[in-house]
Write a structure and sequence with these properties.
By secondary structure, the chain is mostly helical. It has helices at 2-21, 26-30, 34-53, 56-61, 67-75, 81-106, 127-149, 158-173, 200-205.
Amino acid sequence: MEAAELGLFMVSACSFTVLLEHPASPVYQMLPNPLLRMALIGIAMGLTLLGLIHTPWGKRSGAHMNPATTLMFFRLGKVANWDAFFYMAFQFIGGITGVTVSALILGTVLAHPSVNFAATQPGRSGIPAAFAAELVISFLLALTVLTVSNTARLSNFTPYFAATLVATYITFEGLRSVRTVYCAKYHHHNSTRCIFRCRYAELQRA
């Protein structure tokens, strides 16, 4: 169940990222504002998470869909060793399978530098800054889930808090990824072929 949930989440992530970030997409061309596009991706993924949590599988498995979440509950003594091992193993399997299925369906557009398999990579600030940002948002997500789910009057709203945080993180964290970097070349106004993963033409159109 956890593998299927995360697999479907990744199919959704890949599909919406292609739709909103690939230069050939009509939606991309209609929406030149990158913040608006990332916000729409964030909303789509928040709704995807919300939908998966409310499926029969999500209701039964807990809909962790993230090894870090399972590890957190394991360290808090809420998940047995055996369950934690298999949960995390199948979450990895589900994530990999979801991206693989997306690649088979969507083809080469998923590998385009502006889509990059829907992965958020370290941006201009480098790996330490990306690690710090991921640490902070993971901490806030975990704190929110633990606080809300263990508060009687708020516990029923836990899925909505989680989905809202996911939508917010994607909107603002995704903008700091390598998608904002169009090329590694300093000088483009010449007839020499670019040897990098170049998106300079997109910058000119924007």
